[in-house]
């Protein structure tokens, strides 16, 4: 529990970054991204200290795996933000990282029990590949939501904004306090909210995430056979993982072979993300014994 208390350090910095973003008058995004990067550096240190604590073996607590998932997601978010220079990615996606940190703190401290039955490097590869794939699909989910809302706003001849920055001079103090200032106008339409760019980023998440998920599932099936001494494909986690894989396989096929783009591709990404949430629920909370936890 003492080690888990360190989870609140990056969590606090991530939350403070939004306070700075909304209330700082001068150069708010620069201060916001400073807090984000600082939190990520501390989060990275906690990840590697935690893994080293368990000697990078197969005995990895569930809470640390969820924390690791949040770290991988944040790494991907930052990389996409830097690569595509779309500042809004960090703003919209970081709340999921915050949620992951909260879940990791309250998650049960159960360990994987399959030690000595399979090679530890296979489990590490399985975990990293699955978490990387899920994180890429999570970002695709966020991008899909932005795409859908932005497309709807464009049909109404409006721009999607992170908050309302109108010059409402209401006498209500609380309303004025939360009214964003004019220097946030770079969060409006512009290059970042270009629908083509959003769709392209979504596609890149799919191209990178699907091979990672596929490799992770294949390794997971092998580990499952070693753990349960059976190659059966009837456990809930495996069924849901296979359905998730089919959704993303269909989406990738439609995008490559038939040029599926836009709203329909975004909706399929959202459906796949829902299946990922179900898989996580089965893995860690509903039926942990089916995934090798005690």
UniProtKB/TrEMBL annotation:
Membrane-protein topology: Multi-pass membrane protein
GO biological process: cytochrome complex assembly
Membrane-spanning residues: 6-23, 32-51, 57-82, 89-108, 120-149, 208-227, 233-253, 265-287
Main location: membrane
Source taxon at top rank: Bacteria
Keyword Transmembrane: yes
Keywords: Cytochrome c-type biogenesis, Membrane, Transmembrane, Transmembrane helix
Ranges of residues in domain Cytochrome c assembly protein: 65-280
One annotated GO molecular function: heme binding
Location(s), subcellular: Membrane
GO cellular component: plasma membrane
Protein name: Cytochrome c assembly protein domain-containing protein
């Amino acid at each position: 529990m003492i080690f888990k208390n360190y989870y609140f350090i990056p969590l606090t910095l991530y939350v403070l970054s939004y306070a700075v973003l909304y209330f700082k008058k001068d150069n708010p995004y620069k201060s916001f991204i400073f807090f984000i990067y600082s939190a990520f550096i501390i989060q990275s240190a906690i990840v590697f200290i935690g893994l080293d604590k368990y000697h990078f073996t197969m005995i990895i607590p569930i809470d640390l795996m969820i924390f690791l998932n949040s770290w991988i997601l944040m790494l991907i978010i930052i990389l996409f933000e830097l690569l595509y220079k779309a500042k809004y990615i960090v703003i919209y996606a970081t709340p999921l990282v915050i949620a992951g940190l909260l879940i990791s703190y309250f998650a049960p401290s159960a360990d994987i029990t399959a030690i000595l039955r399979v090679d530890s490097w296979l489990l590490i590869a399985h975990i990293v590949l699955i978490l990387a794939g899920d994180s890429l699909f999570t970002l695709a989910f966020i991008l899909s939501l932005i795409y859908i809302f932005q497309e709807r706003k464009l049909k109404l001849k409006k721009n999607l904004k992170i908050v309302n920055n109108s010059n409402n001079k209401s006498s209500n103090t609380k309303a004025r306090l939360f009214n964003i200032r004019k220097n946030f106008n770079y969060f409006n339409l512009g290059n970042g909210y270009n629908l083509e760019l959003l769709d392209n980023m979504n596609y890149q998440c799919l191209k990178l995430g699907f091979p990672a998920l596929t490799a992770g599932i294949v390794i997971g099936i092998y580990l499952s056979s070693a753990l349960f001494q059976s190659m059966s494909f009837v456990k809930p986690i495996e069924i849901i993982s296979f359905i998730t894989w089919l959704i993303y396989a269909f989406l990738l096929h439609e995008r490559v072979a038939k040029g599926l783009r836009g709203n329909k591709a975004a909706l399929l990404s959202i459906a796949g993300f829902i299946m990922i949430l179900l898989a996580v629920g089965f893995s860690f909370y509903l039926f942990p014994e089916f995934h090798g936890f005690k």
